Known about the structure:
Order of helices and strands: HEEEEEEEEHHH
Shape: rod-shaped
Mean pLDDT: 79
Radius of gyration: 27 Å
Strand content: 15-25%
Strand order of the largest sheet: 1-8-7-3-4
Oligomer: single chain
Distance between the termini: 24 Å
Number of strands: 8
Amino acid sequence: MHKLFLFFLLTLFFSNLVVATEYHTLFEPADLRLSISNNGTVTGVSANITVRDPDKIVLVPFGVMSNTVGTTDWNYTVPASQITKTGQYEYTVCSYSPVENRCDTFEFKVNPAGREQTSILENPLLLVFGIIGTLFLVFGVWQGNSIFGFIGAIMFILGGVYTMIYGFNGEQSLYTQGIAMTIIGTGFIFMFLSAYEWLGWGSYGGDEDED
């Protein structure tokens, strides 16, 4: 039981999701923007876009992009009804002008948060709660001392409360709140188990060195 408990503790903080690209939110419109011009002007320029989902299914077949008047910005908004999968989308933009015609392919990713998910290591206070809590719990299990387990459980609860208030890397959502509830619940489980053993030792009132 102790080996399973230690394995569970050591797997709690190995989370590292690091990627760098354009992000959009699941089930929300994706506004795709590019700067397209002919020597700094959009006179005689037009652009079309083809969008594919993570399964390479064409969502937008050669759609017409719109130009923001007075700028070289062009955009196409993929409706929310077509942003229904998480993963990497691909879009190809073909631009036409009196001087040059060209096509370029770009990528964007979709996830529930609509932003880059970075490492838990960028949450220093949460990391401190996690490390201290884990050390106390591991030491308590190793030494068979429920007091250390109780203190470690409190660190987990504080980490869960911190996550509930501040989220991960400044991101708050139902997902971060769900993780926070899980951390708090885990902390309470460890706390009650530790308190149960602690009170159990107290009721016996025995010395561990006695035979």
